[in-house]
Amino acid sequence: MKNYPQSAFPHCPGLEAALDRLPPAMGAGILRWALWSVPSGGFVRAVLENDLYSAAVGADSVNKRLLPEYVEVLNHLPPGSWGSRDAVLSWRGVLHGVDPEAWPSEAHQWRRAQSVRFVEAPQSEWGGGDDGEEVKP
């Protein structure tokens, strides 16, 4: 098991084991997506949108080999968080709208430990970029 907040997994049964088969930065990006709707790069977005052709074309050699594992991860994500462009654009995360102070402390600490600046940006501005690359404050 990688360093993911255990409190996240009641929202996403089976996700922990599926994420463990991915590179750590990619698993963290998908978990941030599931919990808070934080965008990742173009490869992850293509996977979430069920656009496997674009995912395969845009993947690096490691992620291309792991594409079946990414498909397995989809089976454990919350309903409505993936499957089409519209689903991805409308997803707000299982913890969206919940006061961060009310989050389980473990999830809150994990988010802080990621040292990622979480910005509310229109999903239409979600650009490609290197997957796994995080925006540091």
Describe this structure in a few short sentences.
The chain has 137 residues and is mostly helical. The chain has helices spanning 15-19, 24-36, 42-48, 52-58, 61-65, 67-74, 85-90, 105-113. The longest helix is centred in the first third of the chain and has 13 residues, at 24-36.
Explain the overall architecture.
With 137 residues, this protein is mainly alpha-helical. The chain has one domain (8-116). The protein is 44% helix and 0% strand. Helix 3 runs antiparallel to helix 4. The longest helix has 13 residues, at 24-36. The relative contact order is 0.21. Mean pLDDT is 75; it is low at 116-137.
The number of domains: 1
Contiguous low-pLDDT stretches (5 residues minimum) are 116-137
Q: Specify the biggest β-sheet.
A: none
Shape: globular
CA radius of gyration:
14 Å
Features:
137 residues; mainly alpha; 44% helix; disordered C terminus
